[in-house]
Amino acid sequence: MEKLFGILEAGGTKFICAVGTGPGDIRDEERFPTTTPDETLSRTLDYFRRMENRHGKLSALGIGSFGPLDLNPQSATWGFITATPKPGWSNTSLASFLSESLGVPAFIDTDVNAAALAESLWGAGTGLKNLVYVTVGTGIGGGVLSGGNLIHGLVHPELGHILLPKRGDDAFEGNCPFHRTCLEGLASGPAIQKRWGIGGGNLPPHHPAWDLEAHYLALGLQSWTLSLSPEKIILGGGVMAQEHLLPLIQTKLLKLLGGYIQHPLLTQERIGEYVCAPGLGTRSGLMGALALAMGLH
Amino acid sequence: MEKLFGILEAGGTKFICAVGTGPGDIRDEERFPTTTPDETLSRTLDYFRRMENRHGKLSALGIGSFGPLDLNPQSATWGFITATPKPGWSNTSLASFLSESLGVPAFIDTDVNAAALAESLWGAGTGLKNLVYVTVGTGIGGGVLSGGNLIHGLVHPELGHILLPKRGDDAFEGNCPFHRTCLEGLASGPAIQKRWGIGGGNLPPHHPAWDLEAHYLALGLQSWTLSLSPEKIILGGGVMAQEHLLPLIQTKLLKLLGGYIQHPLLTQERIGEYVCAPGLGTRSGLMGALALAMGLH
Fold this sequence. Notes:
Two copies of one chain form a homodimer. The first copy, chain A, is an alpha/beta fold and about 300 residues long. Chain A has helices at about 35-55, 95-100, 110-120, 185, 190-195, 210-230, 245-255, 270-275, 285-295, and strands at about 5-10, 15-20, 25-35, 60-65, 80, 90-95, 105-110, 130-135, 140-145, 150, 230-235, 275. In chain A, helix 3 (about 110-120) packs across helix 9 (about 285-295) and helix 6 (about 210-230) crosses helix 7 (about 245-255). Chains A and B meet through helix 6 of A and helix 6 of B.
């Protein structure tokens, strides 16, 4: 009999729960808003219990979650959300709580590490061992696969919070509560909204907001290219739904690298193979949670 | 009989050649200036041939080299120095030339990746699987061990060339020919010399040069901490011989991280365990080349 897996993409705005046996066989899916930990986790448990009644026992649960997370398997708080700015959620047990309540093994990683994994298995980076997945939306975060392993070290990558040079014509003071003018503080969805007084979804494609947005994102990509040496950088998230943004970022990245790194993909002709959209659309995170449950990390 | 290894640290200024059976048993060592590729590689071959006459056949050769390097084992130019700004050295075969001439297998990586490996085996990061080694000298470069593997992806890390915000009181225009105000352009030894008109070795410890230098290096460390999530960052190279610099960098890094990443080492009490000097002093690169020869990568 095929194994049935529990799948959870735990986002700061919504939780997406699903069950399935593989990426081509998702049997059920449900989403609900992220409210308090008590309410949200009860609803999650409830969902998986209903699914077990209907489809049979789960073999494992995979969780891709917002963070920061404790991913140290030796730690007493493994699988906890640690000190998050999200009210009420600091020090919340996610993985061990769900694992113990359901009586199934749980695997957890950041939502973006999970997305990077899924894109390397079934998406735009299939077969690659070194790739970066970045989401640009309410926040900016990234997951990294390096040498075939998802990066965990002191903690896990937090790609959105690197400090950047502000462009001379940008008077916006940045809105990251920790760093002001880090990438997230300058280029997240809320930063666009606050700088221009209009959300990105309502700014026309030729508005100067996009040139500036592409500039800051390209600065991030310049830094990740040099630090992480990925074979591909995949850009997802709500802001990237603006399709005119991707070619702008590609061109600006090449300019910022200044020809220092020589590689056939780092050319105007082939940059689209290096910086691209997710192959799994908006489902990289959910598919990544499935991959974790399947033990493919 | 113990295996004898050939060891080469190929630097842009000098080559260091050695033979030995392990880190505690270096049998001979010689250094000479890096001139033309022909002359320098002849001298290198000559050295290892003399050593074979004296000590017997080498089992393998390990090379830590300046770069950029082609480290793709599938490439026809594997082990070549690729497009380096160093005159005459672009497209120089290092690993296969020496391997074929000596009739021994050769292993090659960047000098800084080699140094990171050695520090994880026998130095300040013994036992760690995630660490960064950075050299601050004529240039700024870094090697990265992630999940126990040296990072190779599209190419290899080039940590010194990330773009940084210039500090408001710094009028220096930066001296990186590729990026002007990247970390190397703002904080390498030659950048200090050019900005202040005096080399770092002749600037007193309380000179404002050091506060600025620590600021830029801390910005680099902030970025690497967030992108690479290492368990330790080891700072070597000629500029770091100024011992008053390390505590300044440690304090400034904590300030720049702004409490966003929570970890016991990221505190004023324990930051010295996270950012520290090499355990192998100035020999991390050479010991790394030995580790490559020994197949410990």
